[in-house]
Give the backbone structure.
Amino acid sequence: MKTFRKKAVRYCLAVFIIASLNFIIPRAMPGDPVVNLLGEDFSVSQDAIEELKAELGLDKPLPVQYLNYWRDILRFDLGYSYHYYMNVLELIISKMKWTLLLVAPAIILGAVIGAFLGSLSGWYKNTFKNRLSTSLFLAVYSTPPYFLSLIFLYLFSFKLDLFPLKGFYATGGLMDIMHHLFLPALVLTLFIASRNYMIMRASVLQEKGRLYVEYARAKGLLGRAVLFRHIFKNASLPVITLVALDFGFILSGALFVEIIFSMNGMGTLIYDALMSRDYPVLQGAFLIITLMVITANSIADLLYSILDPRVRLK
Amino acid sequence: MRLKPFFNRRGIIKEKISLNKFGLILFSFFTLTAVFALHLAPYDPWERFEPYASPNRYHLLGTNDIGNDILSELIHGSRVSLLVGLGTASIATLLGLIIGLVSGYFKGIVDELLMGITDIFLMIPRIPLIIILAAFLRPSFWIIMLVLGLIWWTTTARVVRSKTLQIREMSFVTSSRSLGFKNSYIIVSDIIPHLFQVLSTKFMLTTASAMISEASLSFLGLGDPSMKSWGMMINFAFQRGGFINEMWWWYAAPGICITMCVLSIVSLSFSFEREEQKVIAGM
């Protein structure tokens, strides 16, 4: 419990530091802070700028600005996008739903497929089949996710016309959404599975040499039974931590997949915000993504302490 | 290919390293291309010909929307991409080495503090942070390299720390200490040589992931517009009609180059690890 408390302190500190970073960046960067805080997409008169400056509190000293910044965050006020004429938080939540719809199945499937195939490959190390699958996953691992999406989009949607070219839905039915979701989710699943595959494979290779494996064999258990009854449990522990740590990476991967498939989620939101230099949206998105990553990490920590008795006892 | 077993100063044989042949050949190919780019490229990458040409005798990979020869761009792009990767990895490995060494060697409160910072840095989603910074900075090549280097050191620091913790308890370190050598001397002559394996693996994996990140940033249009990297080429192809017009050679060529180059580096890094350590975590 003590280690968990220490970790909780670290998580809180991380939130604090990242939020502060979010405060500092637009104010420390070159250029006019009004522009940095509102985005470059709109032009207003000098008077209006002065007015906005007062409204944003930029004429106050920095410590006061900082306190106000925290007050706004605690009120869930992430600012206003002058590009969309919308509250940033509402905007992000409306897009995040779709991104999660894409990411959640991919994470689960990717973890299951990666862990399963990875453990098989670690167990039967030198067979042809496993070498092949290792090379394939390594190749996927080395491909930037957006390039993989481009290839899939070109092959399956453009050439073979099996899947729609863009978006989350055309008519809105469940089947329609699934049809649209299949290809991007497949790319993301492959991408996540490749990372888990490598970790699981290494983990099984490491566990294979332990004494309890020897004992299970001596008891008379056959190959796969040893693997799935005894090794799998222990070997999958690092995967849990890494899936959590990877969460930020996976989310950013999903952003690129979305951009290629022109899906109207967080990725496209960030891309559009970049193109129009809509800074409040960019900052809000960064803050929300960070919060999600930290939440994922703390959940993984909890899960770990429940699953691993060695950690539980401490 | 087998390298000679190498000895440390005390004459103890360390491990034999057999380099991954596939990775070695491919990586040398890309490095040589980058070094001799000026001689290999048929044209200047900024020279303009007839735009949107399909691959033909004069332009093996065709030309892009403003008539630049794509093959020449590709060859010159290897320089930018490799340089960003290696530069980032150098900064990150150096930082990770220093932080990991100090926290592993001195332990106690220093360790708590440094590892706390590392944990926090580890949780910051890196790509979104770079996107934010790059959006404000309109980055040059060097800034991208610096920013990537400054956030990519975390996993190296962790690995170096745990390795240092192991080594500092070994008897040759104890004997050095009891002979009265200074900490700085022990670190340089006893500990750092033993970190070679860990560091070289981490260096290569950082290079690989930095190259992917650079390509991703450039794809978002956040790269250095005066340097045509592979990612930038894909971005142009996607933005300016290469995809819609089915000019697949325009974006497939740089994409395959990135993938192959990263793949070669990752497989090369495997040579430095023992089989059961092949965890490419936190890349």
Summary: Chain A touches chain B through 62 residues (CB under 8 Å). Chain A has two domains: 2-74, 88-311. The mean pLDDT of chain A is 81.
